[in-house]
């Protein structure tokens, strides 16, 4: 593979954050945008007020936090590699079930946020089933660990019992409720204690003695679960050999992408605890666009074509959200599956049977918009200037064979209360 065929995509994660209303989706998303904010160096912020100020300003300007897709950058702790994390907005309310399904179509992985004092609530269950239908790999974030009644075990048990999924807790909280102090990473056997309210001063240390037995027990259960999905790990397990951190991460990643296991993390978005570790887990366990099945299209004769994520391939893009912007007018949010969409060119809207001109292209960041000349396979952004494109429409190259991407129309919306 040359770079042209998209090796940059290894460092892309297109994710959604899904939750029951009130579980903390907005707070978690805001914190993620804060920590990934390009012009906000968290090292320069000295008190909690700065975070809040910035969020308030954003709210007043009312733009990007609610953008259909926000592009953020994250450098994984201790690695130095920069990742592009596109956060696709998934509506949380049950009334928007069809909208949720539409957004599921364009993401490669999701973070399911749960309120740890409530466990798995009905709407979370609905969203989880939708993610199942669309084959979306997930990690779970047990939020509100600081709240009265918070229980990490409750979330883990509910994932097993109410969702019928296999939870793989990769963290353990140090203290719960008002005593919630930090998080232990079971995979790496490291502990993180938060020493300020911003979550920027994190003291990394050995697992405290009082948690040693619990962590050892959870780690062997994790290895056992990971061995079930990874042959190499299974052989080591049977030989009684201890896997390295890398081997364990690789196996959990494989299990997550195959939707056989679901890593469970914990934290408190409100108290800024666990959000950076959550971003690390997004990078570690959720798939890049190269690791998900290629989207399929059908031509008028019913012949099927696959569109692997390749920027030099034929253009195949899906419009997934139309928004009216007070400054620039109609914004069409698109995901590019294959090929490259360039500003000033013509595309063919295969759903409407119309040729359309692509105006300017934008990438939405947490605190600014960036005008770009092209959007490549795997990327998401907004197009200005498309007059006819509607949600769910397929955009292809002007001269290409007329194909329609897999439909995102939902035959029978699952509305369950
Ligand atoms: P959404 O409806 O899922 O988007 O939830 P929000 O992010 O708006 O949060 C709902 C409520 O829960 C708000 O009052 C938040 O301040 C609160 N909340 C969010 N995260 C936490 C948390 O980690 N701990 C506590 N105690 N409250 C939280």
TrEMBL record:
<dbReference type="GO" id="GO:0003924">
    <property type="term" value="F:GTPase activity"/>
</dbReference>
<feature type="binding site">
    <location>
        <begin position="89"/>
        <end position="93"/>
    </location>
    <ligand>
        <name>GTP</name>
    </ligand>
</feature>
<feature type="binding site">
    <location>
        <begin position="19"/>
        <end position="26"/>
    </location>
    <ligand>
        <name>GTP</name>
    </ligand>
</feature>
<keyword id="KW-0648">Protein biosynthesis</keyword>
<dbReference type="GO" id="GO:0005525">
    <property type="term" value="F:GTP binding"/>
</dbReference>
<protein>
    <recommendedName>
        <fullName>Elongation factor G</fullName>
    </recommendedName>
</protein>
<dbReference type="GO" id="GO:0003746">
    <property type="term" value="F:translation elongation factor activity"/>
</dbReference>
<keyword id="KW-0251">Elongation factor</keyword>
<keyword id="KW-0963">Cytoplasm</keyword>
<keyword id="KW-0547">Nucleotide-binding</keyword>
<feature type="domain" description="Tr-type G">
    <location>
        <begin position="10"/>
        <end position="290"/>
    </location>
</feature>
<comment type="function">
    <text>Catalyzes the GTP-dependent ribosomal translocation step during translation elongation. During this step, the ribosome changes from the pre-translocational (PRE) to the post-translocational (POST) state as the newly formed A-site-bound peptidyl-tRNA and P-site-bound deacylated tRNA move to the P and E sites, respectively. Catalyzes the coordinated movement of the two tRNA molecules, the mRNA and conformational changes in the ribosome.</text>
</comment>
<dbReference type="GO" id="GO:0032790">
    <property type="term" value="P:ribosome disassembly"/>
</dbReference>
<keyword id="KW-0342">GTP-binding</keyword>
<comment type="similarity">
    <text>Belongs to the TRAFAC class translation factor GTPase superfamily. Classic translation factor GTPase family. EF-G/EF-2 subfamily.</text>
</comment>
<dbReference type="GO" id="GO:0005737">
    <property type="term" value="C:cytoplasm"/>
</dbReference>
<feature type="binding site">
    <location>
        <begin position="143"/>
        <end position="146"/>
    </location>
    <ligand>
        <name>GTP</name>
    </ligand>
</feature>
């Amino acid at each position: 593979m040359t770079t042209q065929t998209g090796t940059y995509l290894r460092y892309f994660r297109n994710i959604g954050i899904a939750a029951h209303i009130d579980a903390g989706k907005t707070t978690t998303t805001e914190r993620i945008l804060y920590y990934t904010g390009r012009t906000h160096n968290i090292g320069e912020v000295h008190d909690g007020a700065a975070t809040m100020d910035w969020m308030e300003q954003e709210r007043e300007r009312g733009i990007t936090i609610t953008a259909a897709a926000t592009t953020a950058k994250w450098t994984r702790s201790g690695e130095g590699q920069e990742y592009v994390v596109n956060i696709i907005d998934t509506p949380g309310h049950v009334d928007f079930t069809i909208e949720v399904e539409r957004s599921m179509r364009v993401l490669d992985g999701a973070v399911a946020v749960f309120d740890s004092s409530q466990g798995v609530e009905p709407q979370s269950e609905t969203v989880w089933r939708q993610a199942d239908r669309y084959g979306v790999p997930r990690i779970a974030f047990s939020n509100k660990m600081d709240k009265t009644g918070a229980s990490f075990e409750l979330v883990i048990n509910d994932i097993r019992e109410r969702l019928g999924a296999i939870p793989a807790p990769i963290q353990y909280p140090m203290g719960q409720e008002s005593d919630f102090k930090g998080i232990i990473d079971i995979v790496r056997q490291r502990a993180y204690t938060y020493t300020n309210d911003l979550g920027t001063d994190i003291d990394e240390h050995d697992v405290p003695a009082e948690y040693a037995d619990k962590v050892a027990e959870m780690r062997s259960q994790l290895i056992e679960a990971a061995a079930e999905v990874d042959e190499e790990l299974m052989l080591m397990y049977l030989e009684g050999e201890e896997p390295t951190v890398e081997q364990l991460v690789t196996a959990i990643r494989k299990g997550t992408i195959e939707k056989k296991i679901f890593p469970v993390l914990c934290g408190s978005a409100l108290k800024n605890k666990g959000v950076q570790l959550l971003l690390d887990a997004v990078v570690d366990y959720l798939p890049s666009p190269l690791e998900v099945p290629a989207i399929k299209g059908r031509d008028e004769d019913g012949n099927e074509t696959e569109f692997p994520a390749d920027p030099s391939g034929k253009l195949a893009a899906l419009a997934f959200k139309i928004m009216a912007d007070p400054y620039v007018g109609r914004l069409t949010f698109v995901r590019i599956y294959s090929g490259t969409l360039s500003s000033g060119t013509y595309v063919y809207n295969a759903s409407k049977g119309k040729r359309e001109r692509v105006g300017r292209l934008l990438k939405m960041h947490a605190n600014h918009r960036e005008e770009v000349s092209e959007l490549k396979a795997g990327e998401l952004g907004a197009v200005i200037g498309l007059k006819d494109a509607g949600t769910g429409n397929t955009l292809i190259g002007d001269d290409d064979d007329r194909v329609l991407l897999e439909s995102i129309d939902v035959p029978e919306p699952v509305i369950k209360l």
